[in-house]
Specification:
Layout: E1 7-8, E2 17-19, H1 34-45, H2 63-66, E3 76-80, H3 87-98, E4 102-106, E5 117-119, E6 122-123, H4 139-150, E7 155-158, E8 170-176, H5 182-188, E9 193-194, H6 204-216
Parallel strand pairs: 1-4, 2-3, 3-4, 5-8
Antiparallel strand pairs: 6-9, 7-8
Length: 231
């Protein structure tokens, strides 16, 4: 592999190493790109003409403009060994290395979550604050809908290429006895967004189409006012 010679030993010192997320969403839950992060930070820390308390704020910096001169050279980034076969992940790593960044390979501690399950291909909003994760918009509604949908019902599981994730959680497509495809239903009604994680991509195209339709129809989390949502 092209970047192997530039990946440091897993026992390297971890001070000042920024880990690369497996879903490439490192900026955070409110933004999707580093540029978005910079714009948001500028807005939060900058001067507001309508707020006297921020007048002549020394932290009023256009961080997004700073990105034009920002360099990755010499900065260290943690590369999760479990994602080395993921094409998109490796493209991101190769790009960082080509810009002078240093990739530090590591293998995370294994946490056994046997008995837990994950719906393949969908990402539901967080229903509550948990650790560093904050409750997402429409999280409670999504969680309540899924709970009602599954309450006391038998389900059938369909597996894809990988049956378990690295934590031991079952990865599945879930169906009710009446044929309702739970994964697709959540996306279709706006209770979840699409999260494609190769190699489990059997219904990825279908989920994308359903998500786009839900967005256009402003269903669920795509609608500004969830109280007015109609299924």
């Amino acid at each position: 592999m092209l970047i192997q010679s530039k990946i440091l030993d897993k026992n390297a010192i971890w001070e000042d190493v920024a880990p690369l997320s497996g879903t490439l969403d490192t900026p955070g839950p409110m933004t999707r790109t580093v540029t978005d992060n910079a714009i948001l930070l500028s807005a939060m820390c900058g001067e507001d003409s309508a707020d006297a308390a921020t007048k002549d704020n020394p932290n009023s910096i256009d961080y997004w403009k700073e990105l034009e001169q920002f360099k990755l050279e010499g900065l260290r980034f943690g590369v999760n060994r479990n994602f080395l076969e993921d094409t998109l992940y490796m493209l991101a790593v190769e790009k960082i290395v080509s810009l002078g960044g240093i990739a530090v390979e590591f293998e995370p501690e294994q946490i056994n979550l046997e008995g837990f399950g994950t719906l393949i291909g969908v990402d539901a909003p967080e229903p509550r604050n948990s650790g560093k994760k904050l409750k997402d918009y429409f999280g409670s509604q999504s969680s309540d809908y899924l709970e009602q949908l599954l309450d006391g019902r038998k389900v059938r599981l369909e597996y894809d290429v990988s049956q378990y994730d690295r934590f031991g959680r079952t990865l599945a497509y879930v169906y009710l006895e009446d044929g309702t495809f739970i994964n697709a239903d959540l996306v279709k009604k706006g209770y979840a967004t699409v999260m494609t994680m190769p190699p489990n991509v059997r219904y990825a195209d279908e989920f994308v189409k359903l998500s786009e339709k839900a967005r256009k129809q402003k269903k669920g989390l795509w609608k500004p006012d969830p109280a007015q949502n109609e299924d």
